[in-house]
Design goal:
Layout: H1 2-18, H2 23-26, H3 38-43, H4 45-62, E1 74-76, E2 83-87, E3 92-99, E4 105-110, E5 118-125, E6 131-138, E7 145-150, E8 157-164, E9 169-175
Parallel strand pairs: 1-3
Antiparallel strand pairs: 2-9, 3-8, 4-7, 4-9, 5-6, 5-8
């Protein structure tokens, strides 16, 4: 009985350690909540962009010579503007939206390359620091695009974490 319990606990720890968590990336930008209002996001999104860029700059300075260019969350527009990127094997990229202006949003990831091995986790974050995993998907061989429709997200910040175990690939991501 002890052996079965030990095996179960070991497997649980291994699978938990390998999977992505919604909250780990969002902790880096939780300070923006004071300025994130639906009115601000709709009327003056540029002010949020400058605050986001300032946060990245401050994080970079506080960590000395460490570059956060590749590791810091990137801002993803909620108006369908496409972001392009490259992800290498073993690397992770996180994209974060403004507060969602509507109840249902669609996040699309596409590539002309094979995205086999790309793990995607879509999460919603509330002002009360509650995090909800909305969708997840691991691309299989031959898959090159996927759209995620998430509901009940008005007023929440969305994040899309991409973790790649396949070969280097170029991709695009958009949210609308």
């Amino acid at each position: 009985m002890k052996t079965i319990y030990f095996i179960f606990c070991t497997l649980l720890c291994i699978t938990t350690a390998r999977s992505q968590e919604c909250s780990e990336d969002f902790k880096q930008i939780s300070g923006l909540w004071d300025k994130l209002t639906l009115e601000n996001a709709l009327n003056d999104p540029e002010s949020l962009t400058s605050d986001f860029d300032a946060l990245k700059e401050n994080l970079t300075k506080s960590l000395g010579g460490l570059s956060l260019k590749g590791n810091a969350p990137k801002l993803l527009s909620t108006k369908g503007k496409e972001k392009k990127g490259t992800i290498k094997k073993g690397k992770k990229r996180t994209y974060v939206t403004y507060m969602a202006p509507k109840e249902s949003m669609q996040i699309t990831i596409a590539s002309s390359d094979n995205l086999s091995g790309l793990e995607v986790v879509i999460c919603a974050h509330t002002k009360a620091n509650l995090t909800e995993n909305l969708a997840s998907h691991t691309f299989m061989a031959g898959e090159s695009s996927k759209s995620f429709t998430v509901d009940n997200v008005k007023g929440k910040v969305l994040s899309a974490s991409l973790k790649h175990s396949g070969e280097k690939a170029q991709f695009s991501i958009s949210s609308q």
